[in-house]
Amino acid sequence: MILNIKNIFHCVLIIIWVYLMSLDNPWFNDLNGAFNARLRETSIKTSYEEGKIVLKSIIGIFEASFNLAVLDRLSKPSFIAVERPTEDRVDYLIYETFSVRPLHIQELSMDVSMPKALRDDFLLKIYSMWGDSEDTWIDIGSVYTGYVMCIRDGDVEFKYDPNIMPLVGARAHLLSSWAIDRLVNVEGGVELGELIGFQHTLKIDLLNLIKFHGGVFGFTGCGKSNLTSLIIRKVLNNLRNTSIFIIDVAGEYSINLLDEIIKNGMIFSTEDFIGSDDAVESFLASQVIPESLEDKLFGNSGIREALEYQILNLIGSNRICKIDLGERKSDKLSYMVELIDDLRNDQNQLTKLLASEMYSKLITLTSKLPQDISFHEIAVKDEYREVKNGIIRMIDDVLARLDASRSRTKFNGILEIFRDKLINVGGEDFGYGYSPWDIAKLVMEGNCKLMVAYVPDPMQARDFTSKFIGALFSLRKKSFGGP
Question: Same domain for 357 and 210?
C-alpha cells in the first residue's frame, strides 16, 4: 500500500513536471506561446577610428510572429535567449534588444511616389490586417551580451563567451524575470532600485565595482548622474573605509551629494566663488539643481535658506576651496638658472665665484631637460631622479661652502628655497589655492570621505585630471617605500 502511494505520488510529480514543461520553461517567458521567433540575420559590427579603441558587436535580427502582447512586452527592456546546439547539449546565447519594428508585407511594395489615393488604400489595408494575417511580423534588433546560458538539472548557469556565433534560423525565447535575476544580480549584493520591465530589484557587488572599471552610459537627461550619486551613497554607507573623489565638469554632484559633503567632505573648483561679491549665489548658480529639489526651492523659502546656510558654513570652514592649476615662474627650473646667472655678476666676490661654478655645472646637468620643466616634475618623476639628486648635492655643496665662510647672503636664501621645492613637494602654502598635488595629499590622508572637484572647462579638466592622477600615483608609491 505504501509502495502504491509512493508510485502514485511519483507519477503525479512527473505529470506536473510534464505539464510545466509543456507550457513555458521557468527560465523563459514566451507569453503563453505568443512569442514565436527565430534568428533571421546575424552580423559583426566593428567600430573603430585610427588611434582609438576598436569595438566589436555581434548584431542579431530576430523575426517574431506579430502579436500585440509581444509588441507591448518588447517596448520594455528585454533579453532574448537563442538556441545554440553544441556537440552534446543545447545552450542559449543571450541578446539584449535595442529596437522593435512591426512590419506588414504590403509595406515593402508601397512607395511615396504612388498617388495619394492608392497610398491611402494601402495604409487602410495594412492597418486592418495587423494580427489577423501571416503577412505581419515583428523585426527585433538586438546585440549579443557575450553571455551564454547553460541549463543543468533544472538550474541555470551563465558563463561569458563573447566569441561564440549563433546559427541563423535558431529558435529564440524571451528570458523570464527569474532568469534576468540570475543574469544581472549578485547574490547578497547591495540594492540600487527596480529593474525596469522585471519584477526584481537590481543588486550589485560594490567592492567589485570599485576594484574593476565600471561605467554608466546613457543619453543626456536619462539620469546618469543621479544613478552615480546613488552608487556613491551606497559605497559611503556600506564600505566605511572608502574615500571617493569626483571630477565634475557639469556641476551635477555638489548639490546632489551635499548632505554627504556636509558630513565629511570638501568641494574644490577652478571657479573663484570666494572672490565673488556673493559667494553662495555664485556657487548655486554654477551647479545643476535636481528637478525634485528645484521645485521645493522656489516654492519654499525656508528650504532655500537652509541650503544657503549649509553652503555658507562650508565656505566659512574652508571646505569650498579654489583649485590652482597655474605654475608660477618661481616653480620653473629656468627661474633658478636665471637667478644664478644674475648672481655671477654679484658684488660679493664669494657669491660671484660660487654662482659662476654652479651655473656651469647646472647647465651641463640639465642640458637635456625640457626648457619649461618645473621643480615639481623633477621631484616626482623617476626619469629625473638623477638630475634631482645632482641638483640637491650641488646646492648642499654651495651652502656648505657659504656656511664655512660664515657669510650669510641672499644666495643662501635662494638656494634653500630651491632645495625645499625639490624635497618638500607640494608644500603647505594654499594662498594661491590648492594645486592638484595638494589635493592628492589630502586624498591620501583619508580624512575626507567625499571630495568633489568642479572643473567646468574641458581643457582645464583634462589638465587637472592628468596632474592629480600623476600626483596620486607618486604619493602612493612613496607611501609604500618607493623612490
Answer: no
- pLDDT tens digit string along 182-234? 998 988 899 988 887 777 888 999 999 888 888 888 888 888 999 999 999 99
The reply to whether 319 and 372 lie within a common domain is no
What is the pTM for the complete model shown? 0.68
**Is 463 within a domain?**
yes
Identify whether 200 is part of a domain. Answer: no
Whole-number Å distance between alpha carbons of 50 and 18: 56
Q: Which residues contact 160 (CB under 8 A, 6 or more apart)?
A: 146, 147, 148
Give the Cα separation of 388 and 376 in Å (integer). Answer: 10
Task: Indicate whether 15 belongs to any domain.
Answer: no
Q: Does the residue 94 lie in any domain?
A: yes
Residue pair 149/81 in contact (Cβ under 8 Å)? The answer is: yes
Instruction: Flag residues of the chain having pLDDT under 70.
Output: 1-25, 49-53, 132, 297-300, 327-328, 371, 407-408, 425-432, 479-483
Domain that holds residue 461: 206-326+432-479
What is the rounded average pLDDT for all residues in the chain?
85
